[in-house]
Amino acid sequence: MLQLPEQVTLIHSMKYFDSDREYEIDFLIGHPDFGIAVLEVKGSDLKYSNTGWQQYNRAEHRWYPKDIRKQLGTNKRWIVNMLIERFGDLIPPVSGFLVTPDTAFRNTDNVGGFARRSIVDSTQVDNLWEIVSSRLADKLTEPRFAYGSIWTWKEQIEYIRDQFHTYHDTYEEQIRSTQERGLAIESLSKNQVALLDFMGDNSRMLVRGGPGSGKTVLAIEQAARLSAAGKKTGLLCYNIGLSQHLIRATASLPKNQRLGFTGSLEDLIEKWNIQLPPVPETRAARDRHYRKEVPRVILEEIKDLPEEEKFDAWIVDEAQELHRGHWNVLRASLKDPENGIIHAFGDKDQEIFQRDEESQNEEEWHNRIPWFYARGSLRRNLRNSRVIARLLAELSSRAAEPAGLFEGFMPEYVLVPDDRDIHDVSDSYVDHLLTNYPWDAEHILVLNIGDKSPRHLSALKRGKIKYWERFIKPIDAFHSNVSVIKGLERPVVVLVFDEFVEGSNVQQQLYVGLSRALDDVVLIGKQKELDQLGDFLNNFAESPFSVELNEVPATVVDASS
Fold it and tell me: CA geometry: angle at 246 spanning 399 and 467, to 5°?
């Protein structure tokens, strides 16, 4: 598991000049007892041949030569020389590592000039700290570190940290930085796992947390722990998109941690081979059907569920989506309904639509499961930029406090003239992003507030699973709706304010939409819709693209293209 100890100092995107050239260290990990690790992170595919290292550029579909060994060696030597200049011989061990989250290598002694133990490949990333600390510990046995037993490297690491203030001069520079930050954010999220150590022994546990607080990471971790303990464990969520992410995320778990079930409620119904009544045509009737009729039918069908098909434990992500009847289904499918394990992770503020008549009184979602007695909260937003986290905090007092690695970008809005089609404008804005900034299409998520957009409807014709596979394995900008995207995110969100669905909560839809953006967000809407945001819109600057709208004539875009 990629979990860094509390004592670790983690520095990202360290820029420095040597002679007349600028260099950058992707990550530096410093530990006062072990020393310093310099990481060179190379996403995308890598290969080594007689001509040297090459990295695949997915956008251009070609391989480029990369002198990775020289790059990492230069960075490591620069850190060592800086420390020697300040501390003389009293410097900690410094080791360099090549981290390849998308590439695996054979377990040979040497790979392209690197000692194999200096490479952390895609099969080892979850054990990064174990590998790094073990290598540094080996260095500490060298004679030159004989005094290490009475010293720590705290002062040296603090000195390095004080020399660098991670900032970015331009929008383009920060974009390039955010595209390589996954390692740091994942390590911070997994540090939240300590909560499970305190509460995980409770059979009924509820963990609440805002966007970016690590709920999904914890849900997967707890499911793996229970499975490793010999319990038949199911990992469930309500929407199909998140279920595809969970299926992919758990597919690589060790054999002893494999789960008894991973998927959506719809997948579970199919697993049990339950036939449901036809779905009504009207919106209100459909809602009652899914919230009341479906759980009733399932409960009736599983009365005689064979013991071998029952579960010891259920883990539920985005738990606010489940109705009281769904919880009763999970409880009934346990081998021990009274004492069996149900652990839930959710965020009330992402519950967009009122569930039933009881919700008219603003019933707290966790009160639908009164037999939960251990409750915890995640209070730090580690994943969203601090700018976006502050926007979320303004919309909800329960939002997690900003604690991300990056400040982020100034959010913007685009005011659409009344005579322009809002979806044509959103398509043009995506083209504007791709033309003028270094974002790739796969970094962009276009979310509709209101009904499904034409591009969303067109993409759904491929089938639900194929539709969501395009998100999990991105090749283009992804078009979706705030009502179905929870638990999933991309660096840039284009939030399109179409006509609002009657009975929906505009503020909560905005909250969900904003929370899907890791780094940058833009609102696109006409005056009528943007006016509903009131003073909150003052947090956004008008995009220069709004001016371009008055200069470019309206065009018709084929939504099926």
Answer: 100
For every residue of 165-194, DSSP letters joined together read ----SSHHHHHHHHTT-HHHHHHHHHGGGH
Place of tokens 């501390």: 87
List, for residues 325-365, the tens digit of each pLDDT value: 999 999 999 999 999 999 999 887 665 444 444 444 434 55
Q: Judge whether 238 and 321 are in contact, CB under 8 Å.
A: yes
- Gap between the Cα atoms of 322 and 87, Å rounded: 58
Give the global pTM: 0.63
- 3 state SS of 451: coil
Distances (CA, A) of 44 to 41, 57, 259: 10, 7, 29
Place of tokens 């929906």: 504
**% the chain with pLDDT above 70:** 83
CA distance 369 to 204: 10
Task: Report whether 23 contacts 72 (CB < 8 A).
Answer: no
Q: How does DSSP classify residue 412?
A: E
Q: Interhelix angle for 68-87 vs 154-163, to 10°?
A: 110
- Which pLDDT does position 363 carry in this prediction? 47
Q: How many CA atoms lie within 13 A of 214 on its CB side?
A: 27
- Give the H or E element holding residue 62: strand 62-65
How far, CA to CA in Å, does 334 sit from each of 206, 309, 331, 401, 554? 17, 9, 6, 36, 58
> Which stretch of DSSP H or E encloses residue 330?
helix 324-332
Cβ(181)–Cβ(12) below 8 Å: yes
Rounded-to-integer distance, Cα 4 and Cα 6, Å: 7
For residue 291, how many C-alpha atoms fall within 13 Å in the half-sphere facing its CB? 19
Q: Using CA atoms, how far apart are residues 367 and 529, in angstroms rounded to an integer?
A: 33
Residue 51 class from Cβ within 10 Å (0-12 exposed, 13-18 middle, 19+ buried)?
A: exposed
| Tally of CB atoms within 10 A around 203 | 17
Query: Does residue 521 have a pLDDT over 90?
Result: yes
In angstroms, the CA 490 to CA 430 distance is 14
User: Is the CB of residue 241 less than 8 Å from the CB of residue 480?
Assistant: yes
Question: If pLDDT is split at 50, 70 and 90, which confidence band does 58 have?
Answer: low
Listed in sequence order, the residues at least 6 apart from 25 whose beta carbon sits closer than 8 Å to its beta carbon are 11, 13, 14, 16, 38, 39, 40, 75, 79
Strand-strand pairing, 541-542 and 412-415: parallel
- CA distances to 104, 192, 411 from 382, rounded to whole Å, are 28, 10, 19
Reduce the DSSP state of residue 318 to 3 states and report it: coil
What are 88-128's pLDDT values in tens digits? 888 999 999 999 887 888 888 888 889 999 999 888 888 88
In our burial notation (b when 16+ CB lie closer than 10 A, e otherwise), range 20-45 reads eeeeebbbbbbbbbbbbbbbbbbbee
CA nearest to 12, candidates 32, 34, 30? 30
